[in-house]
Amino acid sequence: MIVPARERLIVALDVPSVAEAEHLVETLAESAVFYKIGLELAIAGGIDFAGELIAAGYQVFLDLKLHDIANTVERATRKAAELGVSFLTVHAYPQTMRAAVAGRGDSELKILGVSVLTSWDQSDLAAAGVEASVAATVARRAAQAKEAGVDGLVCSAEEVAAVRAVVGRDMALVTPGIRPTGSAVGDQKRVMGPGAAIRAGADFLVVGRPIIAAPDPKRAADLIVGEIAAAAAI
């Protein structure tokens, strides 16, 4: 299945209020059709807003990074499926992923396992007690995600090619930490430009600050979609 370039861009609504998120969606108009709602906005009323976006014909990525006892994850995932969101994230631990798959059932919800956060590097893993390298940890979690039956993975664009070698073409790879040329890196440590990420094998790109903090968010989104289209055509 070929996904249009505009649907491969997921705009992260990393804003503190539903009012700001609504304004951003209005500003972007048809430049973006897929939006991510994370923890901050979810707590500020973003779950109801997700329902409004879905009713208006947009796709929604609910980025809650679930990780709890299996029963809780399964039931929370079932609620997300009932809401009609397209993607839901869980941390890529075997029990958590299996519970999310059970909660998804036969719905159209896609479960994404978060391998290693793109704001982490080797020193962060070490501080958390993980002795393996970032690359080895991502590869191991990718293999576990495939075994658990999730639909895709969230990983840095730097790891996309290696992850693809582990999971094959059937799983979607979603990459945050996308920074167009000239954009500030911020708190991200493993980043890549839009075109390079697509050429590396990413299916969807999550972009927040380079769009929402731009002087002209719509133009910023259009330029990224153009990069995606150009890279996908190669």
UniProtKB/TrEMBL annotation:
<feature type="active site" description="For OMPdecase activity">
    <location>
        <position position="68"/>
    </location>
</feature>
<comment type="similarity">
    <text>Belongs to the OMP decarboxylase family. Type 1 subfamily.</text>
</comment>
<dbReference type="InterPro" id="IPR014732">
    <property type="entry name" value="OMPdecase"/>
</dbReference>
<comment type="subunit">
    <text>Homodimer.</text>
</comment>
<feature type="binding site">
    <location>
        <position position="36"/>
    </location>
    <ligand>
        <name>substrate</name>
    </ligand>
</feature>
<dbReference type="InterPro" id="IPR018089">
    <property type="entry name" value="OMPdecase_AS"/>
</dbReference>
<comment type="function">
    <text>Catalyzes the decarboxylation of orotidine 5'-monophosphate (OMP) to uridine 5'-monophosphate (UMP).</text>
</comment>
<feature type="binding site">
    <location>
        <position position="209"/>
    </location>
    <ligand>
        <name>substrate</name>
    </ligand>
</feature>
<comment type="pathway">
    <text>Pyrimidine metabolism; UMP biosynthesis via de novo pathway; UMP from orotate: step 2/2.</text>
</comment>
<feature type="binding site">
    <location>
        <position position="118"/>
    </location>
    <ligand>
        <name>substrate</name>
    </ligand>
</feature>
<feature type="active site" description="For OMPdecase activity">
    <location>
        <position position="63"/>
    </location>
</feature>
<dbReference type="InterPro" id="IPR011060">
    <property type="entry name" value="RibuloseP-bd_barrel"/>
</dbReference>
<feature type="binding site">
    <location>
        <position position="179"/>
    </location>
    <ligand>
        <name>substrate</name>
    </ligand>
</feature>
<feature type="binding site">
    <location>
        <position position="14"/>
    </location>
    <ligand>
        <name>substrate</name>
    </ligand>
</feature>
<dbReference type="InterPro" id="IPR001754">
    <property type="entry name" value="OMPdeCOase_dom"/>
</dbReference>
<dbReference type="GO" id="GO:0004590">
    <property type="term" value="F:orotidine-5'-phosphate decarboxylase activity"/>
</dbReference>
<keyword id="KW-0456">Lyase</keyword>
<dbReference type="Pfam" id="PF00215">
    <property type="entry name" value="OMPdecase"/>
</dbReference>
<keyword id="KW-0665">Pyrimidine biosynthesis</keyword>
<feature type="binding site">
    <location>
        <position position="208"/>
    </location>
    <ligand>
        <name>substrate</name>
    </ligand>
</feature>
<protein>
    <recommendedName>
        <fullName>Orotidine 5'-phosphate decarboxylase</fullName>
        <ecNumber>4.1.1.23</ecNumber>
    </recommendedName>
</protein>
<feature type="binding site">
    <location>
        <begin position="63"/>
        <end position="72"/>
    </location>
    <ligand>
        <name>substrate</name>
    </ligand>
</feature>
<dbReference type="GO" id="GO:0006207">
    <property type="term" value="P:'de novo' pyrimidine nucleobase biosynthetic process"/>
</dbReference>
<dbReference type="InterPro" id="IPR047596">
    <property type="entry name" value="OMPdecase_bac"/>
</dbReference>
<keyword id="KW-0210">Decarboxylase</keyword>
<feature type="active site" description="Proton donor">
    <location>
        <position position="65"/>
    </location>
</feature>
<dbReference type="GO" id="GO:0005829">
    <property type="term" value="C:cytosol"/>
</dbReference>
<feature type="domain" description="Orotidine 5'-phosphate decarboxylase">
    <location>
        <begin position="8"/>
        <end position="224"/>
    </location>
</feature>
<feature type="active site" description="For OMPdecase activity">
    <location>
        <position position="65"/>
    </location>
</feature>
<dbReference type="InterPro" id="IPR013785">
    <property type="entry name" value="Aldolase_TIM"/>
</dbReference>
<feature type="binding site">
    <location>
        <position position="188"/>
    </location>
    <ligand>
        <name>substrate</name>
    </ligand>
</feature>
<dbReference type="GO" id="GO:0044205">
    <property type="term" value="P:'de novo' UMP biosynthetic process"/>
</dbReference>
